[in-house]
Design brief:
Chain A is mainly alpha-helical. The first copy, chain A, is about 70% helix and about 5% strand. The first copy, chain A, has a two-stranded antiparallel ribbon with strand order 1-2. Chain A binds a DNA duplex (30 and 30 nucleotides) through helix 3.
Chain lengths: ~240, ~240
DNA sequence: AACAATAAATTGGTTAACCAAAATACTTAA
DNA sequence: TTAAGTATTTTGGTTAACCAATTTATTGTT
């Protein structure tokens, strides 16, 4: 058996090792919320890894809001308590790559919400942006070209119009996974792509007329086929 | 006027500059999906920033699934098309820090879903974990101590039982913002904390009995007060 | 001309030294 | 003893050199 490098795999292992090490430190030393983590140099020495590895792990935990590095001062533990940090890190370590089904399920959940919210809160500017995205999609489809991206941008425009920055962020996070899985599963056939133009138009109209209930319904209709593809049952 | 350092602010500006620079590169050079980005060294020189700055920006875009660094080979652009990348980066650059309202709105959306899904899909092991979290919360409350963290862990246990890894990830992402804003707004008073024990119990029972509709209803009830605090209207 | 072998250049990852701001320890003056 | 001032240490951030895997270019052989 060859001694392979497996650099990418290793690097993830190293990062998880550091993250769990930080968790243990917080537990063992019982660091209070708002306290400082040991310095990056100490951590790299303690865990036997490079300082850049430590910095990467810290950046990841920073993304999840657990740590906050302060220049020339130290990295501070978020003021959310030891118990929460333990639970969160435990979950973060176990996080697996999202499967297509869970992506779709989540996307539909978010999209139905954004459709309703956008209908309620959309500004005139939002409307213009959605219209632009819609036209771009139609043009691509009528030219017989692939329009997966334009489709996504139409939906992201609605997300932005929802006035909920958190949902918008979450939509962005799941979007790449959606696109790559779409292409992998060959979800979009010719009929659906053309049908979607009409569905999009109806969604747009509902948002324009500020009818949340209708916008939600039309969005649900729009996702019916995709949902059935994943779950073999109707979208309730 | 003093020439202040503003290191933290600057570093964000630098990162955005790099990210938009990368976007422009992709547009201008019209890099096809799956192609390589210019090397980190070239980018750092082109943008007049350090290579570590470039690496950080790349790591951020990696998180959003737009870039994928390959050791000793290059950083590859996700196979999601130029248009989608443009739209996504545009949004990422404009992303603002989540406000409390949007956090709560999103949390309720996710929690109602996880409650229903957990009721349908929970395993025996899930049930045990939820029970544990529930007991931990009760103990803290009965001891008259703060139990915000234990509360969150109860809800995260339900999220895990939902069997939807994507939603679980999203819950984790919004959790720190929730906790810090909770403390800022002093949302939890004594009455609610005690009342929550009963509500939690009912949610648990519904999940145990695999009654999705009831679980969702009980969860909605559980969030009623918080929602009214944010929006001054009833949770529809 | 085509292909295999080899050498050079390029790549992301890693390491270690350095920087300026910040925190701490120490000294000094009242 | 206390408070102010100063020197030292510690900190995250930055830089540049280095590493090994990879890719590309070159050379050599048939």
């Amino acid at each position: 058996m060859k001694l392979e490098a497996l650099t990418k795999n290793d690097s993830k292992k190293v990062q998880n090792k550091i993250i769990s090490g930080i968790r243990d430190l917080i537990n063992y030393k019982n660091l209070e919320p708002g306290e400082k983590l040991p310095s990056e140099r100490m951590l790299s020495e303690k865990f036997g890894v490079s300082r850049s590895n430590v910095r990467e792990a810290i950046q990841k935990l920073e993304f999840y809001g657990i740590l906050k590095p302060m220049p020339q001062s130290g990295t501070f533990i978020a003021n959310i308590g030891v118990t929460a940090i333990n639970g969160m890190i435990e979950d973060i370590l176990e996080l697996e790559d999202p499967d297509f089904k869970s992506l779709v399920e989540t996307r539909i959940l978010l999209e139905l919400k954004t459709a309703g919210l956008a209908a309620t809160r959309r500004t005139e500017e939002d409307l213009i942006n959605i219209r632009k995205a819609l036209d771009a999609y139609n043009k691509k489809v009528l030219d017989g070209k692939d329009a997966v991206q334009e489709d996504l941008l139409f939906h992201l425009a609605i997300a932005k119009a929802s006035g909920n920055s958190t949902i918008e962020t979450l939509m962005l996070i799941i979007t790449p996974g959606i696109i790559t899985n779409f292409e992998k599963h060959h979800v979009c056939d010719e009929n659906q792509v053309v049908l979607a133009m009409k569905e999009h138009e109806e969604i747009y109209k509902a948002i324009e007329n500020q009818d949340p209930q209708l916008a939600k319904e039309k969005m649900k209709l729009h996702f019916e086929i995709l949902y059935q593809y994943c779950y073999k049952t109707q979208l309730s």
